[in-house]
Records
---
Amino acid sequence: GQSLEQPSEVTAVEGAIVQINCTYQTSGFYGLSWYQQHDGGAPTFLSYNALDGLEETGRFSSFLSRSDSYGYLLLQELQMKDSASYFCAVRDQAGTALIFGKGTTLSVSS
Amino acid sequence: EPEVTQTPSHQVTQMGQEVILRCVPISNHLYFYWYRQILGQKVEFLVSFYNNEISEKSEIFDDQFSVERPDGSNFTLKIRSTKLEDSAMYFCASNPRDSYNEQFFGPGTRLTVL
């Protein structure tokens, strides 16, 4: 089966940089995805890494190390609107379903 | 921008009743999913659907659940004989071919079983 571990909560101030880590155990690996979910909202795709290294999308970057079964989401120049839950996810080994971690709640204060 | 839509936004039902949750995936997408999220917990996969049939399902998706694509646009989740523990947010999602990691989620239906 698959399991993902990420911190439950992270706090930061506006303008800061925060890193949300994710370690995973999977039988087969098809990449690591990151989703954002605001309170009461739907998960929204942020980023995906299939290969080792850093993927940058504006203020958000995601990193993957397949040898360490580890990835992280880096959020720069934090804004209040970044307060949300962030989930790492892997694909189910058998098909296309996503298996999510328990999520990290990010609180950004002024 | 196209989006996944879901109805109703909130459904309240009595234990033992049947409910049908409706979704309209993005029109050119081929893969459809139902996920659920119990309040404060992680998003859990229920079932995936491709080419008019179930492609995979989780242990949660037992005989109480069924899915259907009754026409070219709607995708439904039926829960027979609802239980208190079925109370959750149910999300529909879809993706086009070969984009399995970037799934597009609908706004969800909050199901409350009393």
---
Amino acid sequence: GENVEQHPSTLSVQEGDSAVIKCTYSDSASNYFPWYKQELGKGPQLIIDIRSNVGEKKDQRIAVTLNKTAKHFSLHITETQPEDSAVYFCAASIGGPLNDRSGGYQKVTFGTGTKLQVIP
Amino acid sequence: KAGVTQTPRYLIKTRGQQVTLSCSPISGHRSVSWYQQTPGQGLQFLFEYFSETQRNKGNFPGRFSGRQFSNSRSEMNVSTLELGDSALYLCASRGSGRGWTDTQYFGPGTRLTVL
């Protein structure tokens, strides 16, 4: 099955600096790569995602890059703020169409998480 | 739109008991997935339901089961609870019934403690 490795497990940065979290996956059939942020006592919140036909995606201070050949993808947060402190999870997903005819399926494998601390 | 809701938020049970957790997906979403989150094992997939049918299943024993109703609401049941079942159980919904819809949205979770 799919295996997703995530590094580092903890990351401390000064406010205003950049943070980078890296993930590798094993199954070349994976075609969707979301990133989630989880704050204490809450469920994971989607912050950005990328599909396998795209190499890079950016949303304000957050960007994700994907290298299909090397099977790795990364999350970049620029100008970090204290409210960015949380646990971040990457995931690799293999999915099929979700409709009544085919039924659909999705197999999602999560990384082990990175605890990001932004120091004011 | 309201997000994914889960009830109850907290549960305390004893070994051998059974428990039922409930999840209401985002309006219009027809797929519901369940995950178990523990410090040691991380986020692990339990199962996914779509149109009242289980479409996919993770590697968990048969004590873990689920179902989905015609309104897309889902319940998860764990029978004969063990100490190791203590975890945050997360529900995620996706899809609007049109083709490819990969994006999952998570609820706040139900924190289950087994004593």
---
Amino acid sequence: DGGITQSPKYLFRKEGQNVTLSCEQNLNHDAMYWYRQDPGQGLRLIYYSQIVNDFQKGDIAEGYSVSREKKESFPLTVTSAQKNPTAFYLCASNLGPSSADTQYFGPGTRLTVL
Amino acid sequence: AQSVTQLGSHVSVSEGALVLLRCNYSSSVPPYLFWYVQYPNQGLQLLLKYTSAATLVKGINGFEAEFKKSETSFHLTKPSAHMSDAAEYFCAVSSGGSYIPTFGRGTSLIVHP
């Protein structure tokens, strides 16, 4: 089955630690996205990538970093500079830069700071 | 610039009653509009989308939405709520050169027996 996988499902981080969230897709999509979801705030865009080896900051990129070395993979690192990282993180993908494109979402990773 | 407003963070209905979730958008060019549903601790999945082919759009699970340009609205409806409809619903807009959608804050649908 084609789709997006995210791992781990739950992640716990200690203060000062960097953690990396995995996102893999086998839909052959060019574009991939990372969103942060907090209760009552909808989805906020962290980073997005249209093609391999290229990515752009979204609305809340501070304290996060990404890479796009392979078409199917778009990992997100939450660095110690992100002061309030506890949230639900969603990865998404679509075919490419078109306003009519549906986004396909992974199941999410819930990150908690201890 | 594009934006979307979902009226009501929570909507509560009885099982079998009409479901109406409101979404108003702002866009300087003709928009594409989407409704997504999110079940607890899961990702979002597409319910339906408007791409200018027809103003009344039918989606999965008996939901539909009507694009009204004069009211800049794209409200989601379902004639009869089912317990399994309880979830978070997000309206999103993308338009023109901005192929990245803007999401609303979401509306939580609560269905009472």
